[in-house]
Amino acid sequence: MDKRVIEKMNRWKKKSGLWIGALALVFALSACTSSGGKEKSAIDSLNRDDKGTLKVAYFNEQAFYMQYGNAFQAMFPNLELEVVSTESVFQAEDPVAEMEKIMNEQQPDAVYLTEDQYEALAGKGMLYDLDAVVKQDEFDLDSFHPSVIELLKGRGAGKLYGLSPSFSSQALYYNKDMFDQHGIPYPTDGMSWEEVMQLAARFPVKKDGDDSLNGLFQPSQWKNPFDLVRTIGEAKGLSYADTDAGTLSIDSPEWKAIFQSVIDGYKSGSVSMPSDSGGGGMGGMITRVGGGAAISFGPDSMKFMSGQAAMAIDGPMVMNMMGRESRIGAAGAVKSTNGIASPAKSPFKKFEWDIVTVPVDPSQPDVTGNMSLDNVFSINASSENVSAAWEFLKYANGEQLAKTNSKSSFSLSARTAFKNEADGKNIDAFYALKINSQTLLQTLPAGFADSFSQLAAEQIKQVVEEKVSLDEALKQIQSKGQLLLTEANTSEGQQ
């Protein structure tokens, strides 16, 4: 703030008394906001005829113009857009470091980030604090899913450093025809994990072969048999690692009961055992969407869609693909015969289905740990063109684009008034639960979660194959996991 203004205020305070001084302080605070360690004045509104250049960091220039750039350019025709490619981030061993390098070298005004990158860069003071400009512009955050804003602020240590137009969560899909065939009642919103596991056990199963059948199929992106154990435990408010205390507590009666339930499901086949191929792999299909991006559906991710599971936990992509064979064919699903492309035969089986909320725990019936941000748009804290960058963020997260995307996007709109069209299905199942902040905002040492999950997975497989007892496996997980946690804490402390 200008020193002459401050000096003038001080003279007014001496002459006019304390109430004038208080008024001056309020004025000073309202005129200045702190962001990224820099003092920023309130931004000016951008008019349609204003000229300038806006640099946007995005993974692909063509995709940017198709999704955002062309329409935004029409709104501000005299504003020159420049796309800074961040494609190298997706091949980098350290995506955060690569994004930080791009921001320092290229100085984009607006940036497209993953949730992890957003959290890391906000922590480094590299992103512009949006709280003041949101208030100044009366930008309506109340129209967003509350958990999206809560997650953004949680990743920003209480501050809002970005906006996300969409999010991901999961729901429990169920095959109504299969339930009817066996006279089993449909699942309902808010069921406990125990109730869902019991439902899954009521179906006849076939563990192996192309005609395998499971009562419950796990999310297509899960590749580790420990994921289900961890998810059920976190729903109950359990934590297996205390980073601050440096202790592991997996060998407990509460965790043992969860391990036992999941392992019983794996043994019987009522619950699918994740395979290393996860959602991709050979034998699937390729669907082209958007600006030419390819999404792979392998055998695992298509089990429910092909009628080989009574229930499945998965994201909105499955909802969009179910029963839309004609759209898939038109979008470019192909197979190759002697080098000649031809339409692929649909792997889907037609049946009646619907969705309900993912299982919860009665102790925390309104929360889930299965929620994440698809992407985050932020402003570079060093930007000299904040007004234009803010206009772009408003557009990318605005009502009009949300309305358009509700008819075409695979993602869940963060604006609750523009939920995806779901052909009469229970789309609210994806929106009904709040985030489990204890789970989603938990911080573990770098690399520990992955190494521990691998350790637990190996022991689970040993128990399923009856090579060791569950008690023996838990002792191994506890002792070796404690070593992993100690090593990870030591390594992190030395950095």
Outline the structure in words:
By secondary structure, the protein is of the alpha+beta class. It has four domains: 3-35, no CATH class; 84-168 and 371-440, 3-Layer(aba) Sandwich (D-Maltodextrin-Binding Protein, domain 2), CATH 3.40.190.10; 171-223 and 274-365, no CATH class; 448-494, no CATH class. Helices cover 40% and strands 18% of the residues. The protein is built from 18 helices and 22 strands. It has a five-stranded mixed beta sheet with strand order 4-3-5-20-6. A four-stranded mixed beta sheet has the order 9-14-8-17. It has a three-stranded antiparallel beta sheet with strand order 19-7-21, with helices on one face. Helix 4 (95-106) crosses helix 5 (115-123) and helix 9 (193-201) packs parallel to helix 11. The longest helix has 25 residues, at 470-494. The radius of gyration is 26 Å and the shape is globular.
Q: What order do the strands of the largest sheet run in, or round the barrel if closed?
A: 4-3-5-20-6
Largest beta sheet, briefly?
5 strands, mixed
User: In DSSP terms, counting alpha (H) and pi (I) runs of 4 or more, how many helices?
Assistant: 18
CATH H-level superfamily title of the largest domain: Periplasmic binding protein-like II
CATH topology name of the largest domain: D-Maltodextrin-Binding Protein, domain 2
Low-confidence residue ranges: 1-41, 278-298, 325-337
The CATH architecture term of the largest domain is: 3-Layer(aba) Sandwich
Portion of residues within helices: 40-55%
Shape: globular
Total number of distinct structural domains: 4
The mean pLDDT is 82
| CATH class (first level) name of the largest domain | Alpha Beta
